[in-house]
Amino acid sequence: MLSKTFQATDTEAQLYETWETEGRFAADPNSKATPFTIMIPPPNVTGTLHMGHALTMTLQDTLIRWQRMQGRDTLWQPGTDHAGIATQLVVERQLAGENTTRQELGREEFLNRVWKWKGESGSGITRQLRRLGSSLDWSRERFTMDDGLSKAVKEVFVTLYREKLIYRDRRLVNWDPHFRTAISDLEVENKEVRGNLWHIRYPVADSEGESIVVATTRPETMLGDTAVAVHPEDERYKALVGRFVVLPLTGRRIPIVADTYSDPEKGTGAVKITPAHDFNDFEVGKRHDLPMLTVLDEGAAVTLAEIEDDLHTVEGLADPAFVRGLEGKSREDARKAIVAELETLGYLVEIEPHTNQVPHAERGGAVVEPRLTTQWYCDAATLAGPAIEAVEKGDVTFVPRQWENTFFAWMRDIQPWCISRQLWWGHRIPAWYGPDGAVFVGYDDADAKQQAKAHYGEDVELTQDEDVLDTWFSSALWPFSTLGWPDKTPDLARYYPTDVLVTGFDIIFFWVARMMMMGLHFMKDVPFRTVFIHGLVRDERGQKMSKSKGNGIDPLELLDQYGADAVRFTICALTGVGRDLKFGPKRVEDHRAFVTKLWNASRFCEMNGVKPVEGFDPSTVQSPLGRWIIFEASKAISEATSALEAYRFDEYAGACYRFVWNRFCDWYLELTKPLFSGDTTPEADELRAVTAWVLETILRLLQPIMPFVTDTLWHEFGYGPRGELMGAKWPVPVTVPGAEAAVEEIDWLTRFISEIRTVRSEMNVPPSRLSPVLLKDASATTQDRATRWKETIGRMARVSEIGVLDGDVPKGSAQAVLDEATLVLPLADIIDLDAERARLAKELTKAEGEIQKTERKLGNADFIARGKPEVVEETRERLVTQQGDRDRLKAALARLG
């Protein structure tokens, strides 16, 4: 017997353990079924479940469970990413708590500590994925620093190096001065910071009293200036192009160059060029062959090593002793000192308050410094060509298609990929250096030594590169390295390429594109056929979730409070193609009511003797009510299947919701109540069998999205053993002879009852008061149906009797139109009609007033231009709601005549 309520917390962990222990999630390489493969975007081993994880994992699990029921041999490949900088940060913080550092431990001992941490704490995210119900094949779990994956990384690095697609170069990178390493763009978070724009006068060389004013947010880097740039068409400065200025602090002469980078409308129209400390300046420096001087070290402190020889004693300029005194100062302290010295010398013209975007490291929060360093690079442009062609040819399809444009824009303007990181945790670069700096890239030190001996003619001492690889390098190999590559394994042959990748748009370039580049280069085929790009999870007002706003949502708390099924259903219900999700606890609470509705409906079925009937054939059903619900179930099956095929998760959830709540619960079960509670009849027995078939269909339909409650009901009702539902067949539509007539009749019945209910609700008729209904201009068919279903109509619409009206409509009646007939409800003796008219008129006046206020707001150009987008959108949505209320009130007044 089903309990009164479904206890998610008591059920989920136990049921999941059963699924996993019995191997329900496992792929079967020996199966003759067609494989279907999804690769999990490997979460960081340091991670905890956040709403982004909950979104993408729910969508992937829905697809994999659906395809499993379609009879496919499903592989959902699990695993975690070693997350170089994030993991190193965690362990370094632990060491700080022990009053020690990684440097004091040394590299080998530090790495031992990281592996120890990984063994003890690195499985938190995978436990949380289990709580969500994710049916990953855990027997195949991988880690991006497993031996097998490490072997793949070395193979790729060595191969690309020998093909001259990996090389060393000196370029500008995002530099984290805390970790003292290069980082990727994805690890950089731009934050709005209030600061200043300093206007500084640079004297023109060999011209008494002549100067040019530059505006800068970074006076501390002027020690590394190698030019001043002006726009070539800026009339103010045309005569100065080709001449020189004297750097106020050092006396170094630097040229004035013409470059379109300088914006005549911004600041003074003249900008200082510091190629070693700004990405735009770096490009200007390359165009004009400027020196690139580094004046901030790896910790973002001043270093004078590259400008020491340029310090000159020049009258009116800073004393070289002042400049030398900046050595070792932080960039912040150096800025203060330099601004003060410029003001003293008379070169500071103006300080203008200014707000700009300042890059910060996502991990640790340090202000990121553009830094010129020698790093390892991958020739991404060469590798990008086949990936671009694959999308152009349709070998890979993006859903929605507009993301292909984003992909093309990034890939056609792709820059060399910096693949080295100055960390200890990660795949160490397989490169060794000889005494003279010669580089030897090999699979191991023995390979490198053999190369070195061939090069030098003798054995020499080699030193391995200290750097590790960018974590995106190893994750780019994920679709084939996890399947055993570089070995030619049966799994690789069977499960590559994969079918679909589900991910967010923010890593199209960082992960999606790089997997495509590596897959095409090494596997000669794309890593996936379809890329489904979902939106971001935002709060209920449409704002991006962030710690600073305090509007973040912890999915673990939602799982505790509402259960996994409600969370999963909410995610799917809100995931439309090409749009972000407005998500909040209230929405999850609303969908938990759907879980409860299903449970209560199942209890009703159980209490009324509904149970599976062996050999039941829905196509033989005679009852109009049975034929109707089978037709509706088949319609829901078709809609759900089509939605999943098109990655329309919202439409899949909507099709299930409408059928279960509106058709099955609100109508079918209500219509069957008299039959189930009365004497046993052939019709009642048939409808019990129909109900069992429909309930089983519902459980199959909902299994991909609500696995826990459906599996529980499946087992309790005797449809099959616990855990077997996920392997049951996906339902298919059924054709029932005579269904059209049954559907027409039951649809008429539900519309008849709905119209009466609407009128009674609008007129405030108390539920306890029954009202008669008169049929005016009704056809014989309508009259026959009304007679046949009068008891049902009376019970469900609170109708005392149904009659035919041949004359005029009685005074004090409300009316509704149903097909050719008019439904007349004489209400004069039941309610005060004048009072109802007055009430409705008052509400209508109020509604129209609210509409006018909202329309005025939306007609205000300033509100549209300056208002927050989410507030403007909320206002538009409110207007639609208000207009709907107004139209409802007008219709209610019209019913009263």
TrEMBL record:
Principal subcellular localization: cytoplasm
Functional description taken from the UniProt entry: Catalyzes the attachment of valine to tRNA(Val). As ValRS can inadvertently accommodate and process structurally similar amino acids such as threonine, to avoid such errors, it has a 'posttransfer' editing activity that hydrolyzes mischarged Thr-tRNA(Val) in a tRNA-dependent manner.
Molecular functions per Gene Ontology: valine-tRNA ligase activity
Catalysed reaction, written as an equation: tRNA(Val) + L-valine + ATP = L-valyl-tRNA(Val) + AMP + diphosphate
Sequence similarity: Belongs to the class-I aminoacyl-tRNA synthetase family. ValS type 1 subfamily.
Chain coiled-coil ranges: 830-892
PANTHER family in the cross-refs: VALINE--TRNA LIGASE, CHLOROPLASTIC_MITOCHONDRIAL 2 (PTHR11946:SF93), VALYL-TRNA SYNTHETASES (PTHR11946)
EC top class named in words: ligase
Protein name: Valine--tRNA ligase
Lineage: Bacteria, Pseudomonadati, Pseudomonadota, Alphaproteobacteria, Acetobacterales
